[in-house]
Amino acid sequence: MRSYGRRHRAWQRHHGQPLLLLADRPSLTLAAARALFRYRSELAPLATALALFVGAAILHSSHPDTWPWILLTAAIAAALTLARGIPWNIDRAEERLYAGTATAAAGVWLAAATVVGPTSDPLPMLLAAATVAFAVPWWTHRRRRARVRVDRIIQAWPDIAEHIGLAGSRIMSAVVDVWGWRARLHLTNGQTVADVITRIPAIESGLGTRPGAVRVEADPAHAGRFVMRVLAADPHAGAIPWPGPTMQSINDPIDLGVFEDAAKVRLPLLRKHILIGGTTDAGKSGVLNVILGNLAACPDVVLWGIDLKGGMELRPWASCLARLATTPAEAAALLRDGVRILDARADAMSHSGDRVWEPTPQTPALVIVVDEYAELVDQAPTAVEAAESIARRGRATATTLLAANQRPTQKSMGGGALRSQMSVRICLRVRERRDVDLILDKGMLTTGWHAHTLDAPGKFYLLADGHTQPRRARGYLVTDDDVQTTAARYADHRPALDPLSEQAGEVIEGEIVSDPEITLHLALRDAPTDGLSVPELMHFTGMGRTWVYDRLQARATDGRAEQVTRGRWRGADEATP
């Protein structure tokens, strides 16, 4: 401490005492200049009027004969602005009208003031009135105010980034659109898009937006860059009416809905197995109706349906469905026929040398729609193997499986084989965060696919080829009247299976009994002395464990069945079912 004190006193003798400098307040001129610069956008109408007045004074004193050229230039500029938004790069019609009218008015006033002078009556009054008339919509225009806010955010971003944990990041460019604005940002070394996604709530707080307003998309060309989209209002707050079928062939992509940037959600369906997941009232039926409405209009697609809720979801499309299964036995038979068709097509292709089945009206594709797949697994477990076979081998033969499920766990999907074959995943609202990974894939929640935050029926995320970024979309709203009108319009134009597939799908007589009650009675009647197990009875009837147990208990009460040993049953008499 003594040596430090000696060095400090020696420094003071040579350099003097330290001084505290008090800065004066900024001058009024500097403060005014700062205010003018900060509010330059708001003052643009007044600045334009002042520039016109000064320009007219200069032209009147030096070149008063240039007024025809002024009129011609203003007319060309106004015409280009009204027609194409040139040279202001304006895309909206009302904005082009405003800019074109303002350009024409300014040109006429400037030409008149060049001839007689800007102070000649009534030109000053006209200039003031026009300034007020054009300033009001300018000041109230939302997109102009958004540009001002974005400019200020760009200037303040270094401080914002420091507070939210993204220090060193910078905004490279920003664009204002009808719903808000988007910007391209560059991260500092060591930062990743995953870091940004975890800080989305902090970004919303730093920007002062509403919760859920910020979207983050990775830049596929650079790991250190991303696109940030800030929505001033929810573009999907209201339902989007379905415009009707947009497909004319299974080879065409389907329009499922609209992304938040107004781009259409276009998805090819040929050779794609599809999984639709989401909680109750999330909009699964709506997405199914959009797909069925489009496929019903395609003359090269045969539609089959499985709806084990009594057909309440798919029955409105019954006139466009070649087959509709509403019982477990019918569902098992339908899927077995689908496997036969697949095998027959594969065999024919192997002999002809074709690698894929090309759908035409004469050789249509086959799309099997299963609503609530978990019910199929529970009530008709014997059909799961056939469904998995179609999922594994159906792409080349244009045999497609579309499954909708509330929570597609491994158990509810009958194992992981079928879910792993679904190359298109549509995830609507889910109740739990972990359900995102169940529907889409492992790790998708941490990369920004936040389906648990979707707040309205029909909103979804799409994971498929060409759709690998977490972009929110909303499906079209298909009303009951739309379903009825579309089904009636195309019911008489639906194609039939080609002869090869039709022959392969025919059920061999005696192979299956349509009534599971009769099948159960015959199985118990012909059971061996030691009886049949419950799984064996489930296999014979195509029904679930609960259904078999209920019927066995009823038959045991009536004296028509007896339990030989634990879990094994046989018939007690020859009574009819």
Please give a structural write-up:
The protein is α/β, with parallel strands linked by helices. The protein has 20 helices and 18 strands. Strands 5, 6, 7, 8, 9, 10, 11, 12, 13, 14 and 15 form an 11-stranded mixed beta sheet that branches. The protein has a 4-stranded antiparallel beta sheet with strand order 1-2-4-3. Strands 16-18-17 form a 3-stranded antiparallel beta sheet.
Give a concise summary:
With 577 residues, this protein is α/β, with parallel strands linked by helices. It has helices at residues 2-15, 28-38, 44-62, 67-84, 93-116, 123-140, 142-164, 193-198, 200-207, 284-295, 328-352, 373-379, 384-393, 416-420, 435-439, 480-490, 499-504, 516-525, 534-541, 545-558, and strands at residues 170-176, 180-186, 214-218, 225-231, 240-241, 254-259, 264-267, 274-277, 301-307, 323-325, 365-371, 399-405, 424-427, 459-463, 472-477, 532-533, 561-565, 568-571.
Cα radius of gyration in angstroms: 36 Å
Strand proportion, as a percent range, falls in: 15-25%
**pLDDT below 50 for ≥5 consecutive residues: which ranges?**
1-8, 14-24, 507-514
Biggest sheet statistics: 11 strands, mixed
Overall geometric form? elongated
pLDDT averaged residue by residue? 83
Q: Decide which structural class fits the backbone.
A: alpha/beta
Estimate percent helicity.
40-55%
Q: Give the end-to-end Cα distance, rounded to a whole number of Å.
A: 106 Å
- Strand segment count: 18
Helical run tally: 20
